[in-house]
Amino acid sequence: MNILVYLIPISLILGGVGLAFFIFTLRSDQYDDPEGNARRILSDEYDDKPKQ
Amino acid sequence: MTATIRPGISACPACSAAPAAEALAAGAAVQKDVRVALSLPTIHCSACIMAVEKALSEYPGVKSARVNLTLKRATVEAEPEVMPQDLVRLLDGIGYEAHELDPGTLSATQTDKAGRELLMRLAVAGFASMNVMLLSVSVWSGAADATRDMFHWISAAITLPTIAFSGQPFFRSAWAALAAKRLNMDVPIVLAILLAVFTSLWETTLSGEHAYFDAALTLTFFLLAGRYLDHRTRAIARSAAEELAALEVPRAIVMVEGEERQVPIAEVSVGDLVLVRPGGRMPVDGEIVEGQSEIDRSLLTGETLPVFGGPGREVSAGEVNLTGPLLIRATAVGEDSSLHRMADLVAIAESGRSRYTSLADKAAKLYAPGVHILSALSFVGWYLYTWDLRTALNIAAAVLIITCPCALGLAVPAVTTAASGRLFRKGMLIKHETALERLAEVDTVVFDKTGTLTAGTPELINLDQVSSRDVSIALALAQGSSHPLSVSLTNAARAAGFEAAEVSEIAEVPGYGTKGVWQGQEVRLGRARWLGAEALSRTAAWLKVGDAPATAFEFTDRLRDGAEEAVAGLLAAGKDVYLMSGDTTLAVEEMARRLNIPHWLAEALPADKAARVQAMTDEGKRVLMVGDGLNDTAALAAAHVSISPASALDAARVASDIVLLGGDLSPIAEALGTAQSATRRIRENFRIAALYNVIAVPLAVAGLATPLIAALAMSTSSITVSLNALRLR
User: Which of A45, B396, B491, B553 is 20 to 30 Å from B137 at the Cα level?
Assistant: First the structure.
């Protein structure tokens, strides 16, 4: 049963990391144009930094 | 926008001072960068995105440009000198259709804050419910004693903050309802969630066996999912409707000391001279000062025949100038113009519509008191039976959780999302939340004629009755003109293989027609009065060769695409179809016969239309009104449910529940079917939810429900309801 001491925090932390990432993507407007984003990766043009 | 400030021509000095002050204020504001929004209806691929962004950002003065493919829209940050018209021309040049959007109208949808907030709460609830479910599964599979207590405590530690954060939309809505002394669906939801958390905490402190933390969280998660679906459907409709409104940038050309200046319509004041170019819409009510033209009044009155306009004639906002440039002096602007007075009529009719109770409201009215009474009764019953507060409270909580409208909360949004999505792909925009339910009840359909059943473009009908000599002369005269009748005549004659005759000295006489010289004789094509002919009751252009009597080219309004299918489909579905128009009896009768519409009403004034619709409603009929003009607005608002085409006047679109995005009418008949099956699905969903309650509630009241049963029942019913809704696609 001692294994639970590691496993429960690990499962919570991993889930929390996923949640934090989701909140990050939400905050940085990454769901505003899903269709455009799907097409943009096909473009040959590269830029050094993300556009605002 | 860097216009110099000059006093306007005005009757009173104070009137001219006010716009000047506004211009000064505007001048200070525009020093910042401006944001220009462009609608790009034709873009569809990654190459399009790159080409548009590249072209826009290379334009001098443009700081950045970003294309949003989902909204088919480009946002440009630019210096104030950059004119939107230039950007539109630039994009047209590289092959992309572009329209300027009014940023003021659009700003509301720039960032969907409410949607993002809901999504955030949904994500947190999802994360928490997964983790708590993991712990609960271990408890159900046999964790006991200290392990079980520890799992319960961890669950509590996750659940409490999550509920406090994710449950807020429900808490707020329930509080608002209670404050107004009403009951809505959210009151039992909040009570169930809070009671579940409270009893579970109590159980946990006493090392009890059953804790409902997972139930409270899954409930929040599923309900938030329903809420988010609902919000998205409405946000999509709102943004599309706003884009339609934003396409008409409210600008007018005002003449100041002989110079043209573009100003927002709101800044035009009484007495200003406004220039209206051919093809333009009158921005304000006024009186013609200079110029002659023909004026299309069909959006206001439904008449198809354009009327002659010359100096001294009154014009109303919304009329379209057809042939020559007109200079008008504004007599009424903004709120006082005839366009706005119509809005009062609409407001009165609207109040009738808000009385409609949606299916969800009806269900909530039955459900909310029932659940509270049932739960209270089981609490009292078990307390009297055992005299144990803990058992009684546990059972009351279980009853509330089991009956909680998880499936009910999903029943309506899941179906409306699927149905709205399906209709949106067919080109129909559902603007009002209960429009689908009301559409399903329709038994009578009323069509407007001009601009709704007809496309507003004339079609030549007697080409074979006119001698080929006359046709070629008419073609020669018509081909240089942009008047709708000339354009139609040119197209018809060319399609029939005619060549233009050799006519010299062709000149357009604004408001009258075109004249020229053919084989030494004067030839004229134009209005009946100009040529001394007797006017016909239907639209016609006349050709006069020399001194011979004039020949008529007769026109009829071209039917809108899908009009025949729509009417035939509605008649086949057993609906009563009416045609109501402000046009002449002959034109309306002919149209009714052409489309097999059994009942028609001609020369109807706007108030007549609304009164007839009201009378039908009083007879117990459910009327669907389809119309586009200002004269339909009151009828659109008075009807049970209303549809207007995208080409309709702004006021008509605002008054209607559904907007047809394409030019095609055929989706109307289908939409009625979709609405009926959507309502059927909603009812089925309610039945599924009720059935599951019938099975699970006795178990809960008998004290046999465990958290496992609650979780199983809740998830299965929610999934069944969602799957049932998906059958609509």
Answer: B396
Closest chain A residue to the Cα of B54, Cα to Cα: A45
Is A19 in contact with B64 (Cβ distance < 8 A)?
no
Maximum distance among all Cα pairs of chain A, rounded to whole angstroms = 55
B585-602 tens-digit pLDDT: 888 888 888 888 888 888
Residue B162 has pLDDT above 90, yes or no: yes
* Residue B347 tokens, joined: 């407001």
Query: Is B247:B39 a contact under the CB 8 Å cutoff?
Result: yes
Is B119 in Cβ contact with A16 (below 8 Å)?
no
Contacts of B367 (CB under 8 A, 6+ apart): B185, B188, B405, B408
Residue B159: which pLDDT band, with cuts at 50, 70 and 90? very high
CATH architecture of B33-101: 2-Layer Sandwich (3.30)
Which of B483, B482, B501 lies closest to B493 in space, CA to CA? B501
Question: Using the beta-carbon criterion (under 8 Å), do A32 and B45 form an inter-chain contact?
Answer: no
Chain A residues touching B135 at Cβ < 8 A: 8
| Residues of chain A neighbouring B159 (CB-CB closer than 8 A) | none
Please tell me which residue, B308 or B341, carries the higher pLDDT value: B308
| pLDDT, tens only, B261-300 | 777 777 788 888 888 877 777 878 888 888 888 887 776 7
Q: Residue with structure tokens 């934003």?
A: B246
Instruction: Give the domain ranges of chain B.
Output: 33-101, 111-247+352-442+622-729, 457-557
Helices B113-140 & A3-27 angle (0-180, nearest 10)? 170
To the query of whether residue B448 is one of the catalytic residues in this protein, the response is yes
Q: Cβ neighbours of residue B258 under 8 Å, at least 6 residues apart? A: none
- CA gap B700, B112 in Å, rounded: 41
Please give the torsion angle defined by the CA atoms of residues B468, B473, B476 and B479, in that order, rounded to the nearest 10 degrees. Answer: -70
DSSP letters spanning B340-400: HHHHHHHHHHHHHHTTPPPHHHHHHHHHHHHHHHHHHHHHHHHHHHH--HHHHHHHHHHHH
Which pLDDT score is estimated for B335?
Answer: 64
Q: What's the CA gap between B706 and B438, in Å, rounded?
A: 41
Q: State whether residue B510 is helix, strand or coil.
A: coil
B422-481 pLDDT, tens per residue?
888 888 888 777 888 888 888 999 988 877 888 777 788 887 888 888 888 888 888 877
Calpha distance B339→B606 (Å, rounded):
13
**Among B residues 102-121, those touching chain A with beta carbons less than 8 Å apart:** 111, 116, 119-120
ipTM of predicted assembly, 2 dp: 0.84
Compute the distance between CA of residue B331 and CA of residue B352 in angstroms, rounded to an integer.
33
Does B413 score more than 80 pLDDT?
yes
Other CB atoms within a 10 A radius of the CB of residue A6 amount to 9
CATH topology for B457-557? Answer: Calcium-transporting ATPase, cytoplasmic domain N (3.40.1110)
